[in-house]
Design a protein that fits this description.
The complex is a heterodimer. Chain A is of the alpha/beta class. Chain A is built from 15 helices and eleven strands. In chain A, the strands form two sheets. A nine-stranded mixed β-sheet of chain A has the order 3-2-4-7-1-8-11-10-9, sandwiched between helices. In chain A, β10 and β11 form a beta hairpin. In chain A, α12 crosses α13. The longest helix of chain A is centred in the middle third of the chain and has 17 residues. The mean pLDDT of chain A is about 95. In chain B, a hairpin with a 4-residue loop joins β2 and β3. Helices cover about 0% and strands about 40% of the residues of chain B. Chain B contains no helices and eight strands. By secondary structure, chain B is mainly β. In chain B, the strands form two sheets. Chain B has a five-stranded mixed barrel. A three-stranded antiparallel β-sheet of chain B has the order 3-2-4, with no helix packed on it. The chains are: A alpha/beta, B mainly beta. Chains A and B meet through α6, α7 and β5 of A and β5, β6 and β7 of B. β5 of chain A pairs antiparallel with β5 of chain B, so a sheet runs across the interface.
Chain lengths: ~400, ~110
């Protein structure tokens, strides 16, 4: 089954992230964003014959794809639920590519996102709900701070091994904020920040400062993957999916063989091999950013710079929309917000906007190809996509 | 020094420490499994461990979101690489925070 270029992203939609869910439900958010994406794709609702969803926090996951299909009055011929953490956005697109290329469906709707409620998510119960048995038995008694301490361990080791500096990490948050200033939907888009601002924000889990830590919130995103043959007759310029790749080496970071080298090494290599491309062919970068160290390690492991030189790469390049190496022009999750599973989809959506030439004031000039990376857990599951304006 | 909880089936009498070992794969295993994760055939043995290792990485938790740890900040959450080749999570204790260094040798301290 040939995958390269046989499917395209033909519809997208994204709700503005919000700190409060204000009585909304995941089902309600899905309905709204699905309607918008179907409209963007110029499809009738009956044309949607595939459905991939991320799980809810507030409802049972039992028969969740069917619950969503029923709530949205869809009649899909292919259904699935994807739970790959932050890699779910890219992972959903990858599974849609497989289903569409295999002929299971023609237009697959991928829905991600959910509500946010401080009262629910700040309880010890919810924290434990996101932990494996091994993490509960062997890590929790020592007081880990979930994702924060996991990425802090990675950042510390990277600094020790490669001389990566606090300033280099902070620069990523600064440049993504500059991008977010042009994104009316971003949670943090009012004022620019400096490296000094980031480094003087509270040290939460040393060496991570508050402004280097993603802000969870509510929101949803939708992506429609269609057969390339269908895309020709649809209103939007198709964004072709040229390569997909995944990899996983561990769940808890304690059991990663090398915490400063991620499975991106394999997921990116697989996606590049499928696309018959390399990092030099990529013009736009959309990289999962729960913390700046994630971006640095992804740049290294995907091959945009040599291993250990991510810090210097950050220092020597301008990641803003007007820079030489535009990256996360929507502000990244660090400034856009992390609306549940839709946080990882925000990178897919922004890449599609850029390749369509529809990114408005933050449009980049070189926009033929994009590398998108989704990262689940603590540099655990990785899902990489290569997107192109041309089928090639 | 690190503290690790006495958890079955890795538990041994006070003052000692043990971890799983697969005699077929000749590899130590952490965390405990019903079957060796490498061959998926062998029931692991329990072997005494040296209790010595080094700090692979650490973080200083300055704000804890866990109720039981709120009054313990700042404290160190670390990954320790044991001489047996496996990595375990733990806290670094009996050492001022500013003296903790990457790769520094540590010994296991039982919480008895």
């Amino acid at each position: 089954m040939k995958l390269k270029g046989n499917t395209a992203i033909t519809g997208i939609a994204e709700l503005a992230p919000s700190i409060k869910s204000e009585g909304r439900t995941t089902l309600g958010l899905f309905a709204e964003v699905a309607g918008r994406a179907i409209g963007d794709a110029g499809l009738s609702k009956t044309a949607i014959d595939g459905l991939i969803v991320t799980p809810p926090f507030e409802d049972t996951t039992f028969m969740w794809p069917a619950q969503v299909a029923e709530y949205l009055a869809l009649r899909p011929g292919f259904l699935d639920m994807v739970e790959l953490g932050g890699a779910s956005g890219c992972g959903s697109v990858t599974r849609a590519v497989l289903a569409v290329a295999a002929g299971m469906c023609r237009h697959c709707l991928c829905l991600s996102g959910g509500i946010w409620d401080d009262r629910i998510f700040h309880s010890d119960e919810t924290k434990v709900a996101a932990m494996s048995k091994a993490e509960i038995d062997y890590e929790l008694p020592h007081g880990p701070m979930g994702f924060n301490s996991g990425y802090a361990l990675i950042a510390r080791r990277h600094m020790h091994q490669y001389g990566t500096t606090a300033e280099q990490m902070a620069k990523i948050a600064v440049e993504q904020r500059e991008n977010a200033l042009l994104n009316p939907d971003a949670l943090f888009n009012k004022k620019p920040i400096s490296i000094a601002d980031v480094l003087s924000s509270p040290l939460v889990v040393d060496p991570l400062h508050l402004w280097e830590i993603v802000r969870p919130c509510a929101g949803a995103a939708a992506v429609i993957v269609s057969r390339t043959e269908e895309a020709a007759d649809m209103p939007q310029a198709p964004v072709f999916i040229l390569g997909v790749g995944e990899a996983c080496t561990h769940n808890s970071i304690v059991y990663s063989d090398d915490i400063t080298t991620s499975p991106v090494k394999d997921s990116a290599a697989r996606a590049f091999a499928m696309a018959s491309m390399g990092p030099a062919d990529i013009e736009y970068l959309s990289l999962y950013d729960c913390y700046p160290i994630t971006v640095i390690i992804t740049l290294e492991d995907a091959g945009f710079c040599a291993k250990g030189e991510g810090g210097a790469f950050v220092e020597n390049h301008d990641f803003t929309y007007k820079g030489d190496r535009p990256l996360n022009t929507h502000g990244g999750q660090l400034s856009f917000g992390q609306p549940s599973y839709a946080g990882g989809t925000s990178h897919v959506i922004e890449a599609v906007r850029q390749l369509r030439g529809a990114a408005g004031k933050r449009q980049v000039t070189r926009n033929r190809t994009a590398f998108v990376n989704g990262n689940g857990g603590i540099m655990s599951t990785q899902s990489s996509l290569i997107l192109g304006k041309e089928r090639i | 020094m690190t503290v690790t909880p006495g958890k079955k089936p890795g538990d041994t009498p006070a003052g000692t420490f043990a971890i799983q070992f697969c005699p077929v794969c000749t590899r130590y295993i952490f965390y405990p499994r019903e079957l060796c994760p490498y061959c998926l055939k062998t029931t692991p043995e329990i072997r005494h461990a040296t209790g010595r290792g080094k700090v692979y990485s650490y973080t200083v938790v300055r704000v804890s979101a866990l109720e039981t740890f709120e009054d313990k900040v700042p404290y160190i959450f670390a990954i320790v690489e044991l001489d047996e080749g496996v990595r375990i999570p733990g806290n670094i204790v009996q050492c001022p925070i500013e003296n903790v260094k990457m790769d520094m040798p540590v010994e296991l301290l039982r919480p008895d």
